[in-house]
Amino acid sequence: MSALLDKKEGAEHLLMGNEAIARGALEAGAKVAAGYPGTPSSEIIESLAGVAKETNMYVEWSVNEKVAMEVAAAASFAELRSLCVMKQNGVNVASDFLLHLAGSGTRGGMVLVPCDDPGALSSINEGESRFFARTVEIPLLEPGDFQEAKDMTKWAFELSEELKQLVMLRSVTRLSHASGNVKFGTLPTEESTARFRCDGFILDPDEGVVISAPVDYKHSQQHEKLKRAKEIFEDSPFNTYEGPDKPELLIITSSACTLYSREAISILGLKDRVGLLKMGTTWPLPPKLLTRYLSLTEKILIVEEVLPFLEENVKVIAAETASEIGIKKFYGKNDDTIPMVGELNPDHVINAIAKILEIDYLPRPEEYSAKTQGLAFFGAPQRELIFCPGCPHRASFWSIHNALELDGRKGFVCGDIGCYTMALLPTGFTTLKTVHAMGSGSGLASGFGKLGQFGLDQPVLAVCGDSTFFHSAIPALINARHHKSDFTLVVLDNSGTAMTGFQPHPGLKVNAMGDNVPDLDIAELCRAMGARVEIRDPFELEETRETLNELMEDKEGLKVLILRQICGLSPEKKAGKKYEMAINEEICLGENCGCNRVCTRIFRCPGLVWDKEKQVTRLDEVICTGCGVCADICPAGAITRKEAV
Amino acid sequence: MAGTQLPNDPYNIIITGVGGQGNVMASRVLANMLVKKGYYVTIGETFGASQRGGSVMSHLRISKKDTWSPQIPKGKAHMIVALEPTEAIRVLADYGNPDVKVVSNTRPIHPAGVLAGDLAYPALEETKKTARGISSEAWFIDATDEALKLGNPILGNIIMLGALSGLDDLPLDKEDFREVIAKSIPQNKIDINLKAFDLGRELLKQ
Amino acid sequence: MKIFGPNELLEEVINKNLCIGCGACIHLCPYFRSYKGKTAMLFPCTLEEGRCFAYCPKIEVNLDELSQQYFGRYYEGGPLGNYLSIHTAKAGPKVEKASFQAGGTVSALMSFALAKGHIDAAVLTDKEGILPVPRVITDADEVLQCSSSKYSASPTLSALNQAMTDEYKKIGVVATPCQVLSVAQMRMNPLEKEDFTDSVALVVGLFCTWAIDFRAFAPFISERVDITTITKVDIPPPPSEIMEVYMGEEKIEIPLNEIRELVPETCSYCIDMTSEFSDISVGVLEGRPDLNTLIIRTERGQKIVNESVKEGYLILHDIPEENLEHLMWAAGNKKKRAFVKAKEEGMINTEGDKKSYLRLQSKTVDEITG
After folding, report:
1. Do B110 and A373 touch (CB under 8 A)?
2. Predicted ipTM?
3. Which CATH class is domain C215-260?
4. Across the interface, do A372 and B96 touch by the CB < 8 Å criterion?
5. What are the tens digits of pLDDT across the range A312-344?
6. Is residue C252 packed enough to be buried (19+ CB in 10 Å), middle (13-18) or exposed (0-12)?
7. Is B49 within 8 Å of chain A by CB?
8. Which residues, listed in sequence order, are joined to residue A331 by a DSSP beta bridge?
9. Which of the listed residues A234, A258, A280 is the one where a domain comes to its end?
10. Domains in chain C: boundaries
């Protein structure tokens, strides 16, 4: 039984931040949860999906974040409590609906949980979701540790219901994916009934029409809600202060930075000199509370990631109350005390405090540091990101790369988001030439495909995964077909949303909760658009390459090549090898003219190891997954495959 | 069996390896064992992209009184458990100090650059020498090789945990271990895991 | 012979548009491939010396070394190169009267050689539509499938490279002058491999003035006809100045000066019209669309010709004086034009780091360029 279902009040468990949020939603009696896979948020929906049957919840991996938010909103309008989960960029995708939802208000408590990725540990941006709360004018909460992740999520539903407004609870990688002790509360026992009341007076928040118009009225309502939130936040137990009554330096912080700041103060031994004001309610900021603490001292350090959101909001209050509290000296991002870019850690805060208070700090003896830096360079060779052994993308990009070289017209590939984004790197033969947001590869290709009018004679290709296809490639493809744009889309169909942990999507017959559901066929959808569609197995290298060249030479608008082969990490693949591979060292040409180690130097599957002493390639049987593709790239025929029993 | 006093509070452990080795599982087991003994534990980890052949670290903070940051400050590790030998060196560079202890597996996982013949991978003897030169003590265990003898390479992580328990720096009981893993693995696999745990303690003593 | 590697091949030949697409560097390894007439390097290779560079007929060709190897003398620059005798020829009664062009001499020689076991495989050029496609033929009856003339360069030597990997021991090849030059280099084992054996038993060289760039020709011809209906392409011998394109019974004629604009620049550096390093060279006979000119160059070439005549595969006659004179004049002109251009552009006998196209005695260069 999942630890999340533990009914014992006060039970203590080690939970990931995401699991704590999920538990908070369960304690609040949330009934509907929707999201789209995105690191670092995915475990929230996954954990809830895992207990959906026992708790009578509906949990959905929606096709994209906008629809996820709409699905959750519907539940709220029908008086159920609902949760909507995504990574930072997901909020951008959902933002149009978000704006209007903030205007229309909600009914059953609804909480939006964006999990940001400062430092882009699993993203290609470190964008911020917090500003959306200010821009669309909804309350924003930021838990500072694992216990708060649970407690604040539960409270967020109550707050949402009181205000009849969506509440944003923002987490970050170092909370979502970190784990800590969490004491449980109680799980609700009452059942919930869904009912959408909409026949009442048009402006009635409980029984009227759910809409953000008339705008001046509804917008004023939003402001009243924010005012009420401010009042509530003045007394919130999630805004805490620890430190001396008259600190020399006041640190104002939120989110995971709370833990870094606390640790920094401890390491420097400055508990008696530095105060820590941790804000859990970061929009709207409670002005009285802030004024009180700002008055304590002249030096204020604001620690947050990534952009100076808290910093600038605090500075506004400081400016407004300057006559009362005096002139302050602020330290933070805008003066480079804290780096503007990247994620934070305790050392950043230590260095900031040390600089402000003019303290020397040396984490360890200097000779030690000097010694280890040098040793690490040779002692620990860099690990580049690579496709897993047996990954169909390696084979797909081998063929795409070669088809482009043979074509010879300097064609290029617009990339998209997924494991295959790594085709920017040598593991994918540096094939991708642009990567932006979900579905953008197809959108850009739709644009490039119209530039023949201006002399662009380079073949245009785009790639996207099966999950990305449903998320946002479809409108771009319709655009391309309708506007007669000339490009070839390669759909890398590995039957799952692999990069984020193999979640299902509309192309599969199963959903988040493990139920059987109808699947949608990518090929049929593309044919319905009027595209020319071909389907191939990427492990058939020559056939795939030939088809690609043919499609690049076909001038007729939109072409779609679906390369279908299951992800190497999927349960089916992991169950057993298709082939037993073997390498004949006598035949292997190694570095000689005729080969020059194409398998280890170029193809780079980790199952193939270059033996410098013997000057041949060896097979690593533990790592090899038996996909068989390398047998087709060996020019000497030294690699052979035999069907596994 | 150790007392309930930690050598340091917070006690900082880094479990490091290569994506896909079972770092996460090892850190969970270790953390849950300590939570059972009443400690506050924070684990800091990253998933996702780093798994695809990249280096991974789990930072564990163990404390009697407080919840600490999921990232250990530079130079402040007390113990490094390395599932792959060169990862020990990489972690020591940023988080090591003259007092740190190291328990490391010996089985190499070659980075793609080494497999491709572009980079050199240090010989084990060199790695041992390097590690011993920048730590107070370093133990090297053939965890994967022994695990293969037991029938499954993933048992290597359990052997490493057993070895860690053998150091007596932390209160790590076999009984706690059994209770923790019983919650997540099938009944018929418990014995082999216990065997691996014991084997780890044995190997450390050698 | 100076040998460098694939990066030099890329820099000095392919990127300078000197590559004719002969196929010599293709299928030796995973890196060079040909597609629709163009040679591409799929991935970088780090070797400093490679067979690809050594075999290439457009870079570091030591004409003196080659002449010494095959003819026992320095390169003398004669218009037709070294030879034993010249005749006119046509296919004999033993050869099925199929759709060959001109006299059918090449088809005759190759059918004979395969049928009688002088070769165990024939490397020929077939076509798919108007795209030439290299093939390895082992059945004498299939030789005639490849009997039409091709006017764009074919990477035929890629099939020779594959035939050698497939371990045929006596391979016959029909090749253009640039390809024949390449085969001559190949047979000398330039990289001095210990396990090398010369498996080329017969080289039949063709006459060639220029080839057309396929990737320019395809769109050019598509503007005039439906490219999928073309059954045959022919350039009749001088004095004709047209290209004939047949779509079954129908045909159109295109003035040769329009076709000449589709000739790649690399052909203007070619010094050899009659495949001077072959065993036997075969080409058109001016004024006689039903016959070929046949040049016998080597002893083994002589043997093949003698026996094929004896077995009824080939019919020989004397070559009329004025044909021979005109052939020498034409071949000599091509050679001189190319030498002059190459010399002016500093591509002969270079020194230091600069890679040379040709190496030979300077006095010979002076003689040829006049």
Report:
1. no
2. 0.93
3. alpha beta
4. yes
5. 999 999 999 999 999 999 999 999 999 999 999
6. middle
7. yes
8. A301
9. A234
10. 6-214+262-369, 215-260
